[in-house]
Amino acid sequence: MKALSLVTLSLHFVAVMLLVGSLGAAIWFNFVGHRSNDADRLTASQILANRLPTTMTFLINLGVPPLLFAQVLYGRALYTSSVLIAVSWISVIFLLILAYWLIYKMQDAIRNQKPAWWIGLLSLLVVMGIGRIYSLNMTLMLKPEVWPQMYAANPQGLGTPPIDPTITPRWMFVMMGGFIVGGLWLMLLANMTHLADGVRSALKKTGAIMPLIGAIPQIFFAYRTYSLQDPAVQNSLSTTPIHRISTLVYLAAVVVVALLCLRQLTAGPSRGLAITGIVFAFLSSVATVVYRDGMRDYILSAKGFNVWDRQEASNWSVIILFLLLFVAMLGIVGWLLSVVKRATPPEEQIAL
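Given the sequence above, the corresponding structure tokens read:
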């Protein structure tokens, strides 16, 4: 179950970063395009906006399995923290609906050649707010020492956790990943040959620059999260082979992505560079999820919540069925992508 949790959470994080990055890029293209009356950038914003609803769908669907696995593995801690901030936690559903609606409104405004960047910005802020709530809950579940006083102060679920310095770096680590994954997505879209050269150039250049912007801040926030942990947790993370390897894999993957983007800046659109970058971005996500999982286990173990001490009675028929359906889903998604690739490209050109 741990392995399933890690794989599905890695995919979910990639989807989150993809949404944040591509939404941010669509906002930028639309804002600059209207200010400079640039049809190429406006078209680039339309191309990204047209794919945002699908991206949001993947984000939501890939977010359900890891949350369910976390509830099974860490039920006592996660359930308690969720109840303590119940109002904020439940509000995620309505915030997702709002973000989804704003994305469609942005898409409609772009098609009608109206300024849509401010609508996209509102949606981005809502999405980032959801990420903040998740970071808050996933950090609160690691702090059983504050649960009694929070419940005593506000048993209605309106409580606010004490300030924890790790919440912001945890949150910003994923947000900075939006620059990396979103940029690689732009690089891939730049290979669509039915687009005008100016549009492809805008997607390629911006896509190559975005990971270079996000890489260093993401590494900083990763180190910041580590440095704020107790010395015992730091020692466990730095001496356990799997977590040392995870650190090296993450850093190596980020460096490779940066080198690929530097190469892309001086070359024409390259599907190979983009796909290779996406593969390494996924590897970095897997590495950080493994590291994050170890950090969570060490913190909870020191406070009496050892996930490995739990008695487990695995329902293998259900697990096998989930694996089969999961693999089938990946195969169907791959087939759908191949169909989209072979289909006649839609009209995605804005003429001023």
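Residues 2-310 form one domain. Try to locate this feature in the token string yourself.
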